[in-house]
Amino acid sequence: MDQALQTEASAGELTALVKRLALAEGFDRVGIARAEPLEEERAHLEEWLRRGYHGEMRWMERAPAQRTDPRLVFPRARSVVVCLVNYFTPHRHDADPSRGKISRYAWGDDYHEVVGAKLKSLLARIKDAVPGSDGKPCVDIQPVMDKAWAARASLGWIGKHTNLITRDLGSWVFVGELLLNLELEADAEPVEDHCGTCTLCIESCPTQAITEPYVVDSNRCISHATIELRAPELPVEVADNLAGWLYGCDICQEVCPWNRFEQPTDEARFEPRAGQTSLPASDVLELTPETYAARFRRSAIKRAKLAGLQRNARALVAPRDGGRRDAGD
Ligand code: B12
Ligand code: SF4
Ligand code: SF4
Predict the structure, then answer these.
(1) Minimum-distance ligand to the CA of 164?
(2) Atom of ligand 1 nearest to the CA of 174
(3) pLDDT digits (tens, 9 = 90+) for 243-294
(4) How far is CA 310 from CA 130, 236, 297, in A?
């Protein structure tokens, strides 16, 4: 950051301004961390990759140094402004077992677009207010560890299910960042880990994907299998324990006591499309490339591709012999 600019307004004044603008943009929570390498997190990331726990996500192997050092993503970064958006809407999954459940995060419009647009708009406001300021918006797809930054910015802790938990909104929050060239005051009072002796998420995972506290093996995770995996069939351990999920999985978060504090979001774009929180497997199997593209335009569900979604629907209606199925039984 230019020295002249930085001395015109104090770090404290700039920090207050950035936080005010973030809340005005509609973010639910905002915190600041210094743009420094994430040393401990890098060790965990490398161990996770070494064990092959990233499954199909080969792109996670690329540049762990960049993933854990924001200055390799935006060289002038001095601060990481971490912004949370609550996505909880007060709807439940359909009890009808012929329908496949969609995970909450994908009920409404694609969060990459919603959160990404808010971050871009926040950056524009900051640039207007502070001459010479610049930054880079990041949400999910950039090589930046979103949850680790949220924990660094004192917005919550990473739970044993590995999602970020806030004390007041639980874990139904998306995480995005602005890497900024402004020297801001960091929120340096970390939120304590409040998991305590609880192990509900670990015990409730139908595929034992949480192999130890704070570690998810994607190869076993329903979310990874139904969203990321491109194989023509689901892995046996997932197909036999699908628990009614068509796209993603929310079980480890649904059982978490901290999600009793969930509050409805103000963001109308996260309301379930056409009121649907689940989809009939038969409807999914009848989709054509055209009807699929129209139904899931600007939806995160597009990530699974039509072939992936239909593979998941097939696994729901016709489980393998001896397979346990919570939907349709
Ligand atoms: C890869 C990925 C996945 C993978 C792997 C999940 C994972 N745990 O990493 C899969 C496909 C399984 C996945 C699933 C989901 N994801 Co996802 N995913 C990501 C992504 C792209 C990278 C995460 C990452 O860096 N993983 C690397 C590993 C090493 O990190 P980690 O498991 O979190 O481990 C950390 C700690 O647990 C700790 N740790 C690790 N090992 C150990 C060992 C010990 C002993 C200790 C003490 C600590 C420790 O250190 C690590 C670094 O901080 C982020 C977006 C991003 N760019 O950050 C979204 C993100 C994490 N996903 C998100 C969401 C919403 C989901 C789902 C809920 C979607 C769904 N409903 O299906 C599920 C949740 C499943 C789960 N229990 O994690 C959100 C989470 C929001 C939140 N509140 O935390 C993110 C942040 C996207 C976003 N920008 O909002 N995801
Ligand atoms: S998302 Fe589902 S499968 Fe994956 S760790 Fe959580 S409960 Fe297990
Ligand atoms: S279910 Fe229990 S152990 Fe798991 S994240 Fe929530 S509080 Fe932590």
Answers:
(1) 1
(2) 90
(3) 999 999 999 999 999 999 899 999 999 999 998 999 999 999 999 999 999 9
(4) 49, 17, 17
Closest of 157, 168, 169, 221 to residue 195, by C-alpha = 157
Pairing outcome for strands 245-247 and 135-138 = unpaired
The CA distance from 104 to 278, in Å, is 10
Question: What fold characterizes domain 3-94+104-180?
Answer: NADH Oxidase (3.40.109)
- Rounded to whole angstroms, the Cα distance separating 44 from 313 reads 34
Write down the pTM of the prediction. 0.96
Give the separation between CA 107 and CA 272, rounded to whole angstroms: 4
Domain map (residue ranges) of the chain? 3-94+104-180, 200-317
Ligand 3 atom 2 nearest Cα = 198
Residue where the block lists tokens 């854990």: 68
C-alpha 54 to ligand 1 mean position (Å): 10
Which ligand number lies closest to the CA of residue 174? 1
Mean confidence (pLDDT) of the chain: 94
Is 91 within 8 Å of 104 (Cβ atoms)? no
158 lines ligand 3 (CB under 6 A): no
Q: Is 203 helix (H, G, I), strand (E, B) or coil?
A: helix
In this structure, which amino acid lies at residue 297? R
Dist. CA 141–CA 233, nearest whole Å: 26
Q: Residue 101: what residue type?
A: K
For residue 258 and ligand 3, the question of a CB distance below 6 A is answered with: yes
Residues with a known catalytic role:
140
pLDDT per position as a tens digit, 61-99: 998 999 999 999 999 999 999 999 999 999 999 888 889
